[in-house]
């Protein structure tokens, strides 16, 4: 039963971010609500309202049919336009910023609910239209159901106005960066709060039993509470090998166990792993660093050439790195003072190197961006870190950046700026002399 429950949870997690998930649910709700109203009409709800509150009931068959037909036609046109606008948004975000942004934009619940409201109203109006008997007899017209269709159409118009506002808001790069940042901040904060076993030791796992997955895909999430329950039951410890967000291949070890496990237990453990063909920042904070880095790189590419966006992206990276400095490089999950699970994580040095290595290629020739990145390093060095070696990582990345900038920039005034930045960061390098920077560097004699 628990195995089936985990499968259902994994299936729900895989489909809930699909753009058609909520529209499908609301369309089914509209279909069923239409038949509920037809049932109530047969029980005489319109007749009762016509006698008590006649202003709420449409009692003319031709008028009702005309209204419903107009609603259906207009709402279908409105839905097609809205869906086309979503496609334009996704295409523009993919071409101007990064294709990795698409899963997050598609999973926007506001767009899904608006499309669902359209489908709900369209299906409701269609089936209410079918229930009208074209005899002109007012008692055969579902007057109250027609009134509800008018109200639902007004709601659709309001939803359309909100949709235009929302889509014009979401396409702005500042709002995209802000959304990525807040999702990553929320995820990182939860992980930091959950690090109750980070200061405990975990046994050496070199001789443990390894088990692999039959599935492939991006390792999206794992139900740690269920894994801990299994560890308690089997009196074992487990190490989860792949880092979240990595693409897991078949026959590659997925986890190790201190004790050898039977086939049924292995299947139960595997059911707690969730794989997907896409990645979401809400499940993997490291993806936020990747997405913001790609936006910066794309902005500084010759085809886009938008340094303002790159500067904004560096601001958000600075805040995320400052928060990441509060997280340990290893995740050890403990419960009741006992250590049960070790989860592989992206360490701070690897994360910062991957981000800065991509940015250096496109930004090392721009002194303004070099200054911005150096300001980021200066700020991070002043922040509290859970490990002291994080400061060494920051200093090393700053040194590499300034060395690359020194080799790429030829203007002597800009080189003096690099000299001052190196002094502020307390960087000494053989690449250039801090105290006596040659003014003839890069100048053709």
From TrEMBL:
Keywords assigned: Membrane, Transmembrane, Transmembrane helix
Top-level taxonomic group: Bacteria
Q: Which InterPro entries match?
A: DUF2254_membrane
Q: Where are the transmembrane segments?
A: 20-40, 71-93, 113-132, 144-164
Q: What protein is this chain from?
A: DUF2254 domain-containing protein
């Amino acid at each position: 039963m628990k195995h089936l429950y985990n499968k259902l949870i994994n299936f729900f997690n895989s489909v809930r971010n699909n753009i058609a998930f909520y529209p499908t649910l609301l369309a089914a709700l509209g279909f069923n609500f239409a038949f509920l109203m037809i049932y109530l009409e047969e029980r005489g709800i319109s007749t009762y309202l016509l006698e008590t509150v006649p202003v709420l009931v449409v009692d003319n068959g031709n008028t009702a049919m005309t209204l419903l037909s107009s609603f259906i036609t207009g709402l279908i046109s409105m839905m097609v336009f809205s869906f086309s606008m979503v496609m334009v948004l996704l295409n523009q975000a993919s071409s101007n910023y990064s294709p990795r942004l698409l899963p997050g934009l598609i999973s926007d619940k506001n767009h899904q609910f608006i499309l669902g409201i359209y489908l709900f109203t369209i299906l409701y109006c269609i089936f209410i239209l079918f229930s009208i008997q074209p005899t002109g007899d007012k008692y055969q017209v579902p007057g109250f159901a027609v009134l509800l269709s008018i109200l639902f159409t007004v709601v659709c118009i309001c939803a359309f106005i909100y949709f235009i506002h929302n889509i014009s808001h979401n396409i702005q790069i500042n709002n995209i960066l802000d959304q990525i940042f807040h999702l990553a901040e929320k995820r990182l904060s939860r992980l930091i709060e959950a690090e109750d076993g980070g200061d405990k030791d975990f046994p050496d796992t070199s001789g443990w039993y390894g088990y692999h997955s039959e599935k492939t895909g991006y390792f999206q999430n794992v139900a740690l509470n269920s894994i801990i329950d299994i560890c308690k039951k089997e009196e074992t410890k487990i190490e989860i090998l792949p880092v979240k967000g990595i693409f897991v291949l078949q026959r590659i070890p997925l986890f190790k166990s201190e004790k050898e496990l039977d086939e049924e237990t292995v299947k139960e453990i595997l059911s707690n792993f969730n794989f997907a063909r896409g990645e979401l920042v809400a499940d993997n904070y490291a993806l936020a660093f990747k997405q913001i880095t790609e936006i910066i790189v794309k902005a500084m590419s010759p085809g886009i050439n938008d340094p303002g966006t790159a500067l904004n992206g560096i601001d958000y990276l600075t805040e995320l790195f400052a928060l990441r400095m509060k997280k340990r490089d290893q995740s050890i999950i403990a419960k009741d003072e006992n250590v049960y699970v070790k989860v592989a994580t992206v360490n701070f040095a690897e994360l910062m190197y991957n981000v800065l290595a991509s940015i250096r290629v496109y930004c090392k020739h721009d002194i303004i961006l070099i200054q911005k990145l150096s300001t980021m390093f200066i700020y991070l060095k002043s922040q509290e870190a859970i490990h002291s070696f994080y400061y060494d990582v920051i200093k090393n990345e700053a040194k590499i950046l300034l060395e690359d900038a020194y080799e790429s920039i030829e203007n002597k005034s800009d080189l003096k700026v690099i000299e001052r930045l190196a002094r502020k960061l307390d960087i000494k390098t053989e690449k250039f002399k801090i105290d006596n920077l040659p003014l003839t560097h890069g100048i053709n004699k």
